[in-house]
Amino acid sequence: MTDISAIESLKFQADPLADAVIADLVASGRIEAVNEVLAHFRANDQPIPEELPDSVRAYLIATDNPPEWADLDRVARTYEFFVDDGVHVASILSFAAMVNCYAQPRPSRVLTLTHKLNQPHRRLSETAQFVVNMMAPDPFGATGTFVPTLQKTRLIHAAVRHFITRSGNWDMAADGVPVCQQDMLGALLIFSVQVIDGMRRMGISVTEQEAADYYYVWRVSGAMLGIPAEAMPETLTEARELNVSLVEAAYGPSAEGVALTRGLLDLYENLVPGKAFDGVVSAMVRQVIDPRVADWMEVPRSRGWERMVSSGTRLVRVLERSEDRNPIARTILDRAGSLLLGGSVCTLCDGQSTTLDIPEDLRERWTTAGACPAARTTSTPSRPV
Q1: Are 144 and 44 in contact (CB under 8 A)?
Q2: For the packed helices 120-134 and 327-347, what is the interaxial angle rounded to 10 degrees?
Q3: Residue ranges of the ER-bound oxygenase mpaB/mpaB'/Rubber oxygenase catalytic domain (predicted)?
């Protein structure tokens, strides 16, 4: 069982390994130069660029491998779940996980103080790419791209910590460390446990084994992001319990959370032509998150659309039961998830179409099944971090 007192101490724990790298780069004025080099560092088997400072090279070497306890066969098994339900995972990440993150007042303050992180199109894009890289057939192996993604994400968190703590706008004694390990653990539970819960609220069938394996991949990834392994529950059952006692218990209203949620809803409403269908976005959000959280985040009510979305959810459950036997039902389900993710992709860069970098094997299998949203968008250069 997870030690709750130890979890509370994570509020004051940062990431010394990554923090030391950022401190060195700031002191030497080399952050922009390193950013330019790391932008081209994308593959697990890619040699570490020689032109990087010694501190960065040492960090990349130290964080190159998954923990010794990681069962890579189990990680690989989760790929089949993502082949079948990846578009649904992405939909719940977009409609539920983001709002649940905003329902935590302390992380919402961090996002608000960090301009680049409070832009919903950027967060959706980066989160979607993170999950796609994580769910590759061999995310930690030579053919994957997930290790550099983890390493860069960890440095971004360290940079946010560095600048916020020196901004004069953060009370460390009262609020702990910005982007602390407690907040990292909370985000991990939102993106794993709560995504599975959200899928089931939408009527998507997820077996307990699939759910446990999906959480396991996030647990391995969390260790590589610097979260202490002993802080992360070993089993899905324990993770669900910690989600209630740590994450859901921390939910509450805040001006920052409301503003961030409004920005997210605006992003999705811009996807739908005209104003007549705006209510469906809020109804979708309310379907997959706790009603209390929706009220705190001031998600608008639309009784008509909420009834229609609820009815649609019941239809999805019927289709799910017949999915394996009925190819038409499978097509409807895959298209629904694909449209949601495809719509997100089209708005990630201020309305400009973009294409997620989906691994070739996954792209082929989604395309064969008619469920690859990126196949219907036009690629444009991504914006710098």
Answers
A1: yes
A2: 130
A3: 118-317
Instruction: Note whether 76 and 174 are within 8 A (CB).
Output: no
- The answer to whether 369 and 335 have CB atoms below 8 angstroms apart is no
**How many domains does the chain contain in total?**
1
> What are the distances in angstroms from CA 356 to CA 38, 57, 306?
19, 28, 30
CB neighbour list of residue 190: distance below 8 Å, 6 or more residues apart: 97, 100, 101, 243, 247
Between the alpha carbon of residue 310 and those of residues 268, 269, 298, 320, the distances in Å are 19, 19, 20, 15
Residue 34 belongs to a domain: no
Contact of 227 with 153, CB cutoff 8 Å: no
The DSSP element (H or E) to which 91 belongs, if any, is helix 72-92
Q: At what angle do helices 327-347 and 255-269 cross, to 10 degrees?
A: 110
Show the domain range for 301. Answer: 1-16+70-385
pTM for the full model?
0.84
Can you give the three-state secondary structure of 290-309, one letter per residue?
CHHHHHHCCCCCCHHHHHHH
Name the β-bridge partners of 352: 349
Is residue 286, in this structure, part of any structural domain at all?
yes
Local confidence pLDDT in tens for the 385 residues of the chain = 556 678 889 999 999 999 999 999 999 999 998 989 998 899 999 999 999 999 999 999 999 999 999 999 999 999 999 988 887 888 788 788 999 999 999 999 999 988 655 566 777 778 878 888 999 889 999 989 999 999 999 999 999 999 999 999 999 999 999 999 999 999 999 999 999 998 888 778 899 999 999 999 999 999 999 999 999 999 999 999 999 999 999 999 999 999 999 988 888 777 665 565 567 778 878 888 999 999 999 998 877 555 665 555 554 454 454 444 445 444 444 544 444 444 444 443 344 434 456 666 666 666 665 555 544 433 333 333 3
Whether 196 contacts 80, CB under 8 Å = no
Domain assignment present for 368: yes
Is residue 296 in a domain? yes
Task: List the structure tokens of 293.
Answer: 């959280």
Q: Which two tokens stand for residue 265?
A: 């809803």
The CA distances from residue 341 to 79, 88, 89, 129, 271, in Å, are 18, 8, 9, 12, 12
Distance CA 196, CA 204 (A): 9
